[in-house]
Design goal:
Layout lengths: L5 H15 L5 E5 L8 E4 L2 E6 L3 E3 L2 E3 L3 H9 L5 E5 L4 H12 L3 E5 L16 H19 L2 E4 L2 H6 L10 E3 L14 H10 L6 E6 L8 H14 L3 E6 L5 H10 L6 E5 L3 H10 L2 E4 L10 H8 L4 E4 L4 H4 L7 E3 L4 H13 L1 H18 L2 H19 L1
Parallel strand pairs: 1-3, 6-7, 7-8, 8-9, 10-11, 10-13, 11-12, 13-14, 14-15
Antiparallel strand pairs: 2-3, 4-5
Length: 383
């Protein structure tokens, strides 16, 4: 199964709905995992995967990207690239310039050096900072339009302040119909697979990277288990910190209460959402520009607890459709989880309100229309 996270999910859904609206879409991405197909047609979306000889700080290096993108751009009307994807976004901007094709950038999150999964030395950090500032300036200057997913991020981002005249706010969304299917037998199979039939289930879904703050969720679990001993935390996803997190869970004597599920396909994921009692996103920085997994959990009517960072408070309205906690405050996080597990009525109300809120505000049918309007405005301005 090809790897995907929040941005990858966004790109896949955007591409699928663009095709449904009569557009031709080619996606260029990395060949991760290595056994994934080099070329694929997924629901009308052409996908080209490039060999990735190395991954640096969680980001793939694709030496052939420039040549592939330049070749494809000859028959393209618009190049749509995504931040934060170091090296990839720079190449997309360069190809846009030399091929004279308009560039649209979806600005998912600020690139933050402190969030790299490997520690940069004190000599390297200033160099990276200077490069980051210069490259971001050139990219945003080249972009014809910049899409941000929440107005909060537009206000918070230092990089965007000189380019607000190009910015349009269009939210991330999910395919609501995709989450409506029910399969009770599959759910029973999952409960047997993870040996969690009689457990309270807390769910995390996402890449296992530094800014997700998973270690603080582990600390919160110590508080939760002191009240509800049969609580199980399912960690769905993979990433460069998996080995470290598995070691940490053992060191904290949590191995009996945490299950590392790894990457799963989308069908299995939606059934995992269904067996959960609540969903937690403990991110610790503004690198969490939106949090599509929050939409997915809320679409399943699951109560959510999330950190008050990045674009999260634009989705989670504290006390109405979820609960917000201060980042890194694992005691508060643990207590909020206990509150939800203790009060089924309130937990159910939060979940139902969340589901209604997502259905009303975050369907891809609405979002793709706005993005097509951006494309059309650019095309008309080029004539």
């Amino acid at each position: 199964m090809p790897y995907y996270g929040g941005i990858e999910s966004y790109i896949l859904n955007l591409s699928k709905f663009l095709v449904k609206n009569g557009h031709k879409v080619t996606v260029i991405t990395s060949k991760i995992p290595r056994n994934s197909p080099r070329l694929e047609n997924k629901e009308g979306v052409k996908i080209a995967r490039l060999t990735t000889p190395a991954i640096v700080s969680g980001f793939p290096l694709m030496p052939h990207l420039f040549f592939k993108l330049f070749a494809i751009s000859k028959n393209a009307d618009i190049i749509h690239a995504h931040i934060n994807s170091p090296s990839i976004i720079e190449i997309a901007a360069f190809v846009s310039k030399i091929s004279n094709k308009p560039l649209v950038v979806t600005y998912h999150a600020d690139p933050i050096i402190q969030d790299l999964n490997t520690e940069a030395s004190r000599y390297v950090k200033p160099i990276l900072g200077t490069y980051l500032n210069k490259s971001m300036d050139l990219i945003l200057k080249r972009a014809h339009k910049i899409i941000v997913t929440t107005p909060l991020y537009m206000e918070k981002s230092n990089f965007l302040q000189n380019y607000l005249h190009k910015v349009v706010v269009i939210p991330n969304s999910i395919d609501i119909d995709f989450f409506s299917e029910q399969n009770s037998q599959v759910i029973q199979d999952l409960e047997r697979e993870y040996n969690i039939k009689n457990n309270r289930i807390i769910l995390f879904v996402g890449r296992l990277v530094k800014y997700k703050g998973i270690e603080y969720l582990f600390k919160a679990m110590k508080t939760v288990i002191s009240t509800f001993k049969n609580t199980c935390l399912l960690i769905v996803g993979d990433g460069p910190l998996r080995n470290n997190l598995e070691y940490l869970s053992n060191k904290m004597n949590l191995e009996g209460n945490i299950v590392f599920v790894g990457n799963v396909n989308s069908r299995k994921l939606r059934n995992i959402y269904r067996i959960a009692d609540l969903f937690v996103l403990p991110s610790i920085s503004n690198s969490e520009g939106f949090g599509i997994v929050l939409l997915e959990a809320m679409a399943h009517a699951k109560p959510v607890v999330a950190s008050n960072v990045g674009g999260i408070p634009h989705i989670v309205k504290n006390g109405f459709n979820g609960l917000l906690v201060a980042p890194r405050n694992y005691k508060e996080l643990g207590n909020r989880i206990i509150d939800l597990l203790s009060n089924h009525v309130n937990s159910q109300k939060l979940g139902q309100r969340g589901q209604e809120y997502i259905i009303k505000n975050y369907s891809w049918e609405q979002t793709v229309k706005q993005i097509i309007e951006v494309y059309q405005d650019i095309s008309e301005s080029q004539e």
